[in-house]
Amino acid sequence: MTARTTAGGRRPGGTPGTAPRPRSRRGRGVPYALLLPALLGLAFLVLPLVGLLVRAPWSAMPEQLSSPEVWQALRLSLICATAATGVSLVLGVPLAWVLARTELPGRRMVRALVTLPLVLPPVVGGVALLLVLGRNGIVGRWLDSAFGFTLPFTTTGVVVAEAFVAMPFLVISVEGALRAADPRYEEAAATLGASRLTAFRRVTLPLIAPGIGAGAVLAWARALGEFGATITFAGNFPGRTQTMPLAVYLAMESEPEAAIALSLVLLAVSVAVLAGLRERWMSAP
Fold this sequence. Notes:
Blueprint: H1 32-54, H2 61-65, H3 68-101, H4 107-119, H5 122-133, H6 140-147, H7 155-180, H8 184-191, H9 196-224, H10 228-233, H11 244-254, H12 256-276, H13 278-282
C-alpha cells in the first residue's frame, strides 16, 4: 500500500514522489542562553576597535602621518616584513612538502616544533634567538669569529625575528594545500619520466599556488605586526630596527595621538589582509 497523495499525485508537504524536506537548522531561533554571551563576546572584540576609531585625531592625521619618523618606521616595516615573507617562502614551502608528502620519522614531533612559535610568547622567542644567534650564542659566536657578522640589533636581525614568528603560518597553510591536492598528478608526472624536483616545480606548485599565496599574505601580516621578538632580539633603534609596532609603543609614552595614528595604519593593513583572504578563510560552508 502506497502513501496517500493529494490531487495531482503530490504527497503532502513535498514534490511528486519525494518526502517533505526537513526544516533548515539555520531557520531556528537562537537560544537566549547562547545569544547573550555571544553578544558580549562580539562587543568585547569590537568595542576596542570602535574606540580606536572614535578617539582618533582625524584632523591631525595628515600631520601625524607625514612626519619623517613615521615614514621611516613604515618603510622599514614594509621592507622587513617582505624580506621575512621571502625567507618563509624559501624555507617554509619545502618544509611543508616534507611534512605533507613524506613519512619522516618523528613527523608529529617535527610538526609540533614547527608550530611552536604560534603559541610561544614572542619575547621568549626573542630570548631564544639571542641565545642561539647572539654574539655569544651557540651559532652567533661562530658567525662573529669566522665572518665578523652579527645579527642582533641590526635590520637583518629584525628580518630574522619576524621570519621566526611568521613562518609557521605559511607552513600550516601550504601543508593543508598539499594534503588537499591529489598526489596522483605527481605520480603521473613521475611515470612520464619527470624527476621529483621537476614534478614539484611543474605540477605541485601550480596546484597549491592559492595555498602558498594565502600563507604568504598571513605570514606578511604577522611579520608586519611583530613586536616582542623584534624588540628583544633587534632592539628599538630609529631608522635601523624601529618598526611600526615599536614606534607605536614608543609614541604612547610621549605622543598618544601619534600612537593612535600609527595604530590606525596597522588596523587598515589588517583589515585589507582579511578582506583579501575572505573567500579562502571566512566563507561559510
